[in-house]
Amino acid sequence: MVLKRIGGFLLFYVCLFSCMNLHAQKKDTLNGSHEKDSVKLDFVARMQAFAKRSSKSSAEEFAADKAIISQIKTFDEIKRTMQKAKIYLKANLDTPGTKLELEAIDKDFAIAGDGIFTNKGSAQTFRNLTASSKILSELLNKANVRKIKLDTRQGELNNFRYQLDSLMSEPALFKFPTDSATLMKYLQKIKVLAYETNPVDSSLKLASNNVQTLLNQVNMTVFKLQSSLEEIESYQKDMANHTYKREFDNIWAPATYSRPFGEILEFSKTKGLLTLSFYAENNAGKLIMLLLLVVTSFVYLRSLRNIYRESNLLKPDFDGQLVLRYPVLSAILMVLSLFQFFFISPPFVLNVIFWSVSCGCLTIIFNKYVNKYWMRVWLIMFVFFLISAMGNLVLQASRIERWFMLLVSIFGVVVGLIILMKGQREKLREKWIIWSIAFMVLLEFIAITANIFGRYNLAKTLFIGGFLNVVIAILFLWAVRLINEGLFLAFNVYSGQDRKLFYLNFEKVGKKAPLLFYVLLFIGWLVLVGRNFPSFDYLSEPLQNFFTQERILGGYTFSIYNLVLFIAIMLISVIVSKVVSFFASDGQFASGKENKHERQGIGSWLLLVRISILCIGLFLAIAAAGIPVDRITIVLGALGVGIGFGLQTLVNNLVSGLIIAFEKPVNVGDIVDIDGQGGKMKSIGFRSSVISNWDGADVVMPNGDLLNAHLINWSLGGNRKRMSITIGIAYDSDLEKCRQILIGILDNDQRINKNPGPVVQFEQFSNSSIDLRIYFWTKHIGDIPATKSDLIVAIADAFKTNGIVIPFPQQDVYLHSPEKPDPEKTDL
Fold it and tell me: 667 is in which domain, residue-wise?
């Protein structure tokens, strides 16, 4: 088409040129004005008509070319869209899986609704409402996940259909060629495209209908779960607002509703296990972290125990060292007591598992340590707790349970009063336990009264709360005691330069834990006991909202909870990093070279381990707090400006610390000489390192100076060093005999290496003696002073025995007096 258009223009210019020549010839031959005007008018008209026809033809050809290009692009786009749609349709929707999950949700919904929507009984129970609420919340989350997936797929299918419809409606597709042959070919191409598109469009429509059907079912399930949760919430709110409301008749009155107790136990067990499985699945990461913390604490306590055992510091009765008696049990008890607060709103059955395991560990630790009377008291309270906990796992009220609760509460009150009146308080190690037992007696007495007069929920809450308060108090008191002991014992053997390794001044702390520990203990006790009351969630809701409410500062959105979480994770990382420093101790209490070498090996990798802990902690803190990455880049940019202006030295020392950690020119425990400072490497930190010199002082040297100095590391060469001693012997001495004597002395000293062996060389003839020098290698650089001293003594004794003289410098002074002249003979 372009060639035709160019050819037309060339033809036009040829004709125009010919006409102009003809006109010039006519102008020369004809002189009449009339003929001249006629020819001129006829030429202009023909040219204008020709121009119009050419312009119209060119525009039509241009439009045709443009339509062809647009059609090609549209065909290609339709084919690409169909290909994408086919690939997307191959990833079939998990319709059977969705239906099975909906069926499982309906089945679990029936379990959760037992005792609330079905088999209601005379009144609702707080524990059953709580368990059902947790199950329904989890089911709602699962249904919402399916709903989001189906909504996304439905949107993608509709998007493909919309793209195909819009492409098939493109106006360029309906601009047909004027040539009949070209038109037939184009129509055939359209027919093939329609034939290819029709199955894809039908598949998209069918898939969209299937997705919509599933989506309708999921929407109905979501609506049902939301409605049920709202109904349970209204029950819980009404129960919290009417805590003292009577739910049943007096305990001696005939029952108005009866359900087999075995059936109640069965559905309680099923519902309890279901809540536990859901919670464990959602908090698998926390459970793994809990296990890792237990292992880490065990390794720490076992290492501490080994140090005390090797240094003969362990007491037979473990007084003040109870945490070292059973390191694994102490680790479990301490970690469970603290880490359980990281589990947000756990099911009661999980708490029972945590508390039961902790009680079992404490029972074994108590064995033959506490007084027999208080050991029996602890076992009785442990049994009371297990009985009340099992009773609290029963989710629906029954007359059998009410009588059971009444008898156990009466027995608990009697036992508590006996302990309060006749207990051996002078032998009680933790006096606060008396107050918790008194509080138990009060709660159980109120529970008895509420149970008798039909206040079932109040009675059950006080029933479990009374015994739980004693067990939690004892667990926390002893957990704090063990933590304090572990830190205090580590402080006693830690030889690092930081006297406040754990951010606590243990010079002011003895066997009694700091007041802060007891404040945190009381808060934790209050939270764990308060969870059993229906009004706890509503009383704590304003505080939760304060921490979880999102706030805006400039363009950054944050919450107090995220900030606290960030600070807590970083603080834990720093503390763990500092605890790891315990393994960098110089082993002053360790015995044996093998143990010392092992501890020095740990210390050599200490800096890398601490850096890894801090980096992991920073990463987890940023991820947990939800800090955007772009904000981090801004902070890094600001740090770059600070480094450029005034932090070069600090950064140089930090980078030098990393170089030392990876390149390892020096390790903890190495014997070094640095700019005249000789000693042993005590620690390698982030910014500076500590060298313990031979005078007993600790020299703090920045890492940058350490790398830039002429570092002599004797340990890299095997801690060997060559020494020499210069000796002078008399000129009349037997030189070969001297050599043999010296070689024998050197060979008999076990501190001197045999390979390379010692060497005796005669140096020079000096003024008073023949000088010789002995060269020898000591096996360890630390043996040099004693070896040299012993050799001097041995050589002096051997020479004296063999009659070899060691001369000393001396000078003879001769006084010459000339004769005095005779005055009489003097010439005048």
Answer: 641-716
